[in-house]
Each structure stands twice: as C-alpha cells, then as structure tokens.
C-alpha cells in the first residue's frame, strides 16, 4: 500500500510540473514573438518624401517630431517631407504639392499646437515608461501616438504619428496618412490669412516664444481696435439714453444693458479683427480663444439678464404705492412669485452659459486652467461658491413661494419698520418709513423670526404708552380717548380700542392707549396723533391741579425735589 502511494505521489507531482511549465512556455513564446515581430502598420510601400540632405530620425516618435520641427525651422521642407506619409494626399488634394503640404503641417504645428513633449516616447516601440502602473496601457507597445487635437467643423481632428513598415524594410515613425490628408483643410482654417502673406518676410520671422514679429505688433493693435469699438458703443448708447430720457421703459432698458453691450462690442470686435486679419498662433491663441469666448458669453448673458431685471424693476417701481395698498394682496403675491421665477430663469441661464462655455471651448486644456485644476484651487473655489450661491438661491425661492415676505409687505426688521422692495439672490432690499434702504441677508429671513405686519391682515393694533403720576385719575382720560377713536378716520374699530394701566413704579404708572388702524402707514400717523392728543389732555388736567389734594397727572418728581431743596434751605 505504501509503494502504491509513493507512485501516485510521483505521478501527481509530474502532472503539476507539466501544467506549470506549459503557461511559462507559452509566455516565453509570446515574448519572443513580440520581440521578433514589431507592433507596426504593414503597408505595401512607403509614400514619404525625403532624399535631400541628412535623413530625419524616424526611429522613435520623439525623434520624428524633433527632427521634423528642426528641418521645418530651417526651411528644408524637401528633407522634412520624409516624415509624412503621402499615400492619401494625391487623390484628396492635388492642388498642393508635397512640399506645400509639408510646409503647411509645420506651420500648423508651429502656430496652432502646443506640443507636449512629455507624451512623446523616445523608444521605437513607443512604450510609455513614465505612466502609472494603474494605466491599462502601461508597458504596452504602441504603433500609433496622438500628438494633438485640432478643431475643424465642430469635430476634433487628431494629429497622429504611426509606425509603418513596408515589405523588406525597417519600421519607421511617420505622420499618418490620414493626418496628412487632413492638412489642406486644417491649413485653410488655421493657416495665415492673405493679409499675413502680404507682410514682409522680416515681420514673419519668429521673435520670441512662438510669436512672430508681426504678431507682437498686431496684438496691441487688435486690443486698440476693440477698445475703440467699445468706446464708440458706449458713446452711442449714452446718446440714445439722452434722447429717450422721458421714456422710462426705453431709458431703463438702455441703462441696464449699457455695460454688457460695451463688453460685447469689445469682445466681438476683438474676435472679428482676429479672424479677418490676424490669426495668432500657438499658446497665445490657446489662451485668447477661451477668454474671448468667456467675454462674449458673459456679455450676451449680461444683456439678457439686465433687460429682464430692468423690466421687472420698472414694473414694480411704478406700482410701489399699489403694492403697499393693504387690500392689494393679489398683486403682492403675483410680483413675488414673478420675482422667484425671474431668479430661477437667471440661475438656469447662468448654468446654461457655463455649460455652453465648457462644451464650446476646450478650456480644460489651457495652461492657466490646467495649473489651477492641478492645484485643486479652482475646484475648491467653484465648490464653495456654488454651495453658497445655490443655498442663497434656494432661500430666495423658498421665501417667494412660501410667501413669508412678499414684495410690498410691511415687516419689522431689527426694530425698524420697513417695506419689502426687492427679493434678490442673496439679499432683501427693504425700504424704511423714512425712505432709507436696508440690505438684509436672506439667511435672516429663513433662519430667524421676524414680524410681517401684512401677511394675512394689514390692520394693525397701535398703542401709545404714557407715564403718569400715580395720583392721576385715569377715568378722566378715558372720555377724551373715546372721543378720539370715534372721530379719527384711521381708527377702523372704535369698539376694539382700550385704555389700560399696564405698569406702575414708585415714580409713575404706565397707561396704555390702544386702537386698531387699517394698515401700518395709517397706523403710524394715527399713533402720533393719539400720543399728541392724550399728552395734551393730561397736561390740561395737570395744569388744573393747582392745589393738593387734587390729583396730579404728569410725574412731578422734579417739583418735589425742588420743594425739598427749598425746605432744606429754609431750615
């Protein structure tokens, strides 16, 4: 039994070694095959140029681009044509020679592309040795490398390098035949204008960075032309505002759109001059394109939102008295909800503009944006600002639809009697009874309690408190008070009026006179008249009390002290 077990164990061990050996052998065969058969595009024949001067370095992607750009900078386009596969160019663009296509490709790379040398491997197999191990392409041989992307007719056209091999030849890296076929169309859009071609050759020479001398001179001229267009727009709108000064609607709309229109004139003129006469190149173009688009979108958005804001302001300002009417609750509800809808439309418009900006421009690939994004600063700022802004917008919408404070409502805020004049994104604008404007944060109206005097019923119980002498006969005051509430036109319910003693100290007693008014405005005036009337009655009764023990009405603490002082002097 032990012998059989020993034979079985030997057989199992042999099978296990065989199973482990087969994958290792297959892996070795695969590695050998990969090394002996390079990862290339096999073509019938190579259709690249060259043959004039020293050959280009076509062994690696980095060598290809470096040697091509060096030959192009030297003007040796016949030699540089060795880097291009012209297999598709003869049928797609007969109007351009191979030398012209090579020159056009160099101009595109020099003017319109920022070459990221870090993505160009310096290995024949194009293995990226710098990438993270988590990258699925890490350690993988490639036969195609994308150098850049250029927009054309709403789609991205890649500038691609390909590793090609003809029968019996060595593998070489070239600009792919599809990339070369796209060069004429790209050059027609991104190449120099007729005006640029007419400039002297000295001005077209490179000055610094990727800028030619004519670009260094042209950039200030473009800015000057745009500033001149903005100034003319400013003067024209100001003149129109003067002509329509008597027309409140037109004047208000022109005033609201004045600054955005000037901004639009500047950005549009800048873009028009650039596209018509000067096509700036390289990093300058990558920086100016998104900034230009941001200005144009911001200007259009500003014009639309300014007109909406101006129309709403005019509608509410012209109906201020009507909105504050205590019986006009429907209009207050309507304009408050309209204000909320306006804010929602404004927020959606801003989000749509930001979305359009991100889609229309490749802003994430610009230098400044990339620096901010890599540092995380831009994301943190956007997140914080967006959270705060979204919270304020939701608070304003909550106030508007819950109608805790409506436009035209009378509220008491921090001890001040105010009317709600505007509900904005982050603040409420309140108008005090003496025509001052109080800007209150929305959080105070969503997180704290406040008094709304016209929420359901505009009528308000007003009260006057007087400090009278403890010996005063309050009953003699009730008759004049009753006459006042029955005769005053702002007292809506005389039966609801009352005169009561609500407090007492050793010095005086507190008498409160209360009467209901139709609304806070009338109530304030009635409150002042009531105070004046009752003080006059008390003063008259007090003057009649010449001798004791006739009751006094006004506190006589000062007289008592003077009497005591005289007695002390006499003693």
UniProtKB/TrEMBL annotation:
The Mechanosensitive ion channel MscS domain, residue ranges: 389-455
Signal peptide: 1-28
SUPFAM superfamilies: Sm-like ribonucleoproteins
Keyword list, A-Z: Membrane, Signal, Transmembrane, Transmembrane helix
GO molecular function: mechanosensitive monoatomic ion channel activity
UniProt superkingdom: Bacteria
Principal subcellular localization: membrane
Localization, UniProt: Membrane
Cellular component, GO annotation: membrane
Gene3D superfamilies from the UniProt entry: 1.10.287.1260, 2.30.30.60
Transmembrane segments: 211-232, 253-273, 293-312, 340-360, 366-385
Name listed for the protein in its UniProt record: Mechanosensitive ion channel
Origin species: Qipengyuania pelagi
């Amino acid at each position: 039994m032990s012998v059989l077990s020993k034979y079985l164990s030997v057989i199992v061990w042999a099978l296990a070694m065989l199973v482990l050996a087969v994958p290792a052998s297959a892996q070795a065969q695969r590695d050998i095959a990969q090394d002996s058969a390079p990862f290339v595009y096999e073509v019938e024949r190579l259709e690249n140029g060259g043959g004039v001067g020293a050959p280009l370095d076509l062994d690696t992607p980095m060598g290809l681009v470096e040697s091509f750009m060096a030959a192009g900078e030297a003007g040796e386009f016949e030699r540089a044509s060795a880097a291009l596969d012209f297999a598709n160019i003869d049928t797609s663009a007969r109007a351009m020679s191979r030398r012209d296509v090579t020159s056009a490709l160099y101009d595109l790379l020099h003017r319109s592309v920022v070459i990221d040398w870090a993505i160009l491997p310096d290995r024949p197999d194009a293995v990226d040795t710098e990438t993270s191990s988590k990258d699925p392409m890490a350690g993988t041989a490639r036969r195609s490398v994308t150098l850049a992307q250029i927009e054309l007719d709403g789609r991205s056209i890649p500038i691609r390098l390909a590793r090609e091999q003809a029968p019996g030849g060595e593998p070489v890296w070239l600009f792919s035949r599809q990339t070369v076929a796209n060069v004429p169309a790209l050059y027609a859009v991104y190449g120099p204008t007729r005006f640029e071609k007419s400039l002297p050759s000295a001005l077209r020479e490179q000055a610094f960075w990727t800028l030619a001398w004519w670009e260094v001179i042209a950039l200030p001229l473009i800015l000057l032309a745009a500033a001149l267009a903005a100034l003319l727009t400013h003067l024209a709108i100001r003149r129109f505002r003067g002509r329509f000064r008597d027309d409140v609607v037109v004047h208000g709309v022109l005033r609201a759109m004045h600054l955005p229109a000037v901004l639009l004139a500047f950005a549009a003129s800048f873009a028009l001059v650039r596209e018509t006469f000067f096509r700036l190149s390289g990093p300058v173009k990558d920086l100016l394109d998104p900034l230009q688009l941001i200005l144009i979108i911001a200007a259009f958005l500003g014009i639309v939102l300014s007109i909406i804001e101006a129309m709403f302001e005019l509608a509410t300002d012209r109906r201020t008295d009507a909105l504050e009417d205590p019986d006009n609750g429907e209009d207050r509800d309507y304009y408050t909800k309209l204000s909320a809808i306006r804010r929602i439309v404004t927020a959606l418009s801003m989000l749509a503009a930001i979305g359009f900006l991100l889609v229309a421009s490749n802003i994430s690939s610009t230098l400044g944006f990339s620096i901010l994004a890599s540092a995380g600063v831009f994301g943190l700022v956007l997140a914080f600002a967006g959270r705060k802004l979204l919270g304020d917008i939701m608070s304003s919408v909550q106030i508007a639809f819950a109608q805790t404070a409506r436009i035209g409502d009378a509220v008491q805020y921090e001890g001040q009697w105010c009317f709600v004049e505007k509900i904005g994104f982050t603040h409420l604008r309140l108008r005090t009874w003496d025509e001052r404007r109080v800007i209150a944060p929305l959080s105070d109206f969503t997180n704290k309690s406040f008094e709304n005097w016209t929420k359901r019923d505009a009528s308000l119980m007003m009260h006057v408190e007087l400090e009278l002498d403890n010996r005063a006969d309050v009953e003699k005051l009730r008759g004049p008070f009753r006459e006042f509430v029955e005769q005053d036109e702002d007292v809506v319910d005389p039966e609801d009026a009352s005169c009561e003693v609500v407090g007492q100290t050793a010095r005086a007693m507190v008498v409160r006179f209360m009467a209901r008014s139709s609304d806070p405005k009338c109530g304030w005036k009635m409150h002042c008249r009531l105070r004046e009337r009752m003080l006059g009655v008390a003063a008259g009764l007090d003057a009649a009390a010449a001798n004791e023990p006739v009751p006094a009405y006004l506190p006589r603490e000062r007289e008592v002290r003077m009497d005591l002082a005289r007695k002390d002097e006499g003693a």
